Amino acid sequence: MQVETGPAPSRKLGGYQFYREVLGSPKYIVAPMVDQSELAWRRLSRRYGAQVIYSPMINAKIFVDSTNKTYRKANFDLMSGEEGDPTTDRPLIVQFCANDAEQLLESAKVIENHCDAIDLNLGCPQDIAKRGRYGSFLQDDWDLIYKLINTLHVNLSIPVTAKFRVFPTVEKTVEYAKMLERAGAQVLTCHGRLREQRGQNTGLADWDKIRAVKEAVSVPVFANGNILYQSDIDACLKATGADAVMSAEGQLYNPALFAGIEHPIDSPSYDSDEQILIRHPRHADLALEYLEIVKNLKTTTSVSGIKGHLFKIMRPGLVKEQDLREKLGKVKISPKNMKECIQAYVDVCNEMKKRMELAENQAAGTSLKDLITVEPITGIKMMPHWLAQPYFRPSAEQKKAYALAHAQSTISSDTTSEDAPLTSKRHLDEMPEGAEQTKRPRIEPETLNTLTIPSASSAMVV
To answer: Is 241 exposed, middle or buried (CB count within 10 Å of its CB: 0-12, 13-18, 19+)?
Structure first.
């Protein structure tokens, strides 16, 4: 395929014109997630306030092979006609990873009439990305990145966007972002973590660097990182000046993260049962709703994707109902007869629903607000276990600090259980150098002490 370089076609909308006229000036974005932002999840997410959603990452090197029909169907099913449908699956941005401009362009050409933009993955920090030389492991080869983006910018009828991670310094991060803009990226998503920040080293995203990027470029900027509760969304937008917030882990565990977000946080009714249930629906109901979407689609949803979603959505209940967790894990579904076999998942979710209703009835007469507790190690609030909510895993540093503080508290005669959230706040002072950055005034109290986002049981966020 002949690749042209130079200015983009004049007919194509870009920058803020594209952001407003095509995307609809969105503020609430669902991130690209391998095996987890598939069509069924996108449909569920749109019901609960998501305004723009990215597809799972597609490997251009594999997708370009037109004979590999299995990979193509699994990653973007054109035959069923549902993915990218203008009435049910838009706005949609399809993400590719690549290190070859011709392969990327050829793959993007297959998709360009079925989405609103093509995104280049420059953020994946996983080992598979290192082996395949894509994602954040391209960030030192600026010439190649420029060529990848510019090739799409010049040769596609739709815009190209880019999602990237920051560098250790603000200066290099800003120069990087400006290079991406010069190459032709019409929207930039800045994930405020370094390439090395993953797994137990995830740490806090640096909102200051996102703000610096926003102030340095003229295209829309989406902020990614540190979003668990709705209060974090407003805090992030104010701290970064970004045009929108993108969520990955937070939205996976609570697909209603963006639901009812127009309700003012400072409203007297914000913490009413009615409003809490809008933001944090009963997780068993969400799981059943998701399965119903899966059953009604012509497009096949992967077995691993379904199981992954159910474990995440219902995690608060599965922690307590260990037999259901084991039963869910043992469900065997044939990919060839998935829709016929999916009743096994439905049965587990229905049993979870019954048990959660029993727990909720036992708490009848107490407001949901009064049932919210604080996780002692991280200091983050926990909703009643029958409600959807974010999941967070304490870091080794937090566990060590908590253990030390707890040991000291048993010696002190004037220390009470009410000290737990306060001692957890001291953990910020024991974070690894560079983890805290300047986030204390930038993140709401309910997520102030989050150091790590779960990784071992999570989808690969790209």
So the answer is: middle
Instruction: State both tokens at 107.
Output: 């793959």
Give the DSSP H or E segment for 110.
helix 101-111
- Count CA atoms closer than 13 A to 1's CA, side-chain side: 17
Alpha-carbon separation of residue 85 from 33, 39, 117, 157 (angstroms): 20, 10, 14, 17
**pLDDT, tens digit, 9 for 90 and up, residues 406-438:** 777 666 645 443 333 333 332 322 222 233 333
Burial of 371 per CB tally in 10 Å (0-12, 13-18, 19+)? middle
How far is Cα 57 from Cα 187, in angstroms, rounded to an integer? 17
Show Cβ contacts of residue 80 under 8 Å, excluding neighbours closer than 6 positions: 297, 298, 299
Angle formed by the axes of helices 230-240 and 207-216, nearest 10°? 50
Residues 6+ apart with CB under 8 A from 22: 13, 91, 116, 117
Q: Are strands 373-374 and 52-54 parallel, antiparallel or unpaired?
A: unpaired
> Lowest mean pLDDT: which of 201-215, 289-303, 423-437?
423-437
Residues serving a catalytic function are: 124
Q: How far apart are CA 319 and CA 324, in angstroms?
A: 9
Residues in the chain: 462
Task: Decide: 257 and 30 in contact? Cβ < 8 Å.
Answer: no
What are the Cα distances from residue 98, in Å, to 2, 62, 144, 247? Answer: 17, 10, 10, 23
**E strand or H helix that includes residue 226:** none
Q: What is the fold of 18-270?
A: TIM Barrel (3.20.20)
In contact, 239 and 212? CB cutoff 8 Å: no
- CA–CA gap between residue 39 and residue 81 (Å, rounded): 11
| 257 CB-near residues (< 8 Å, 6+ apart) | 28, 48, 49, 227, 229, 230, 247, 250, 251, 279
* pLDDT tens column, 380-415: 899 999 999 998 777 677 778 888 877 776 666 454
Distance CA 235, CA 255 (A): 20
Position 462, amino acid: V
Tell me how far apart the alpha carbons of residues 161 and 101 are, in angstroms, rounded to a whole number. Answer: 15
In angstroms, the CA 423 to CA 398 distance is: 10
Residue 336 in tokens: 């060839």
pTM of the model: 0.86
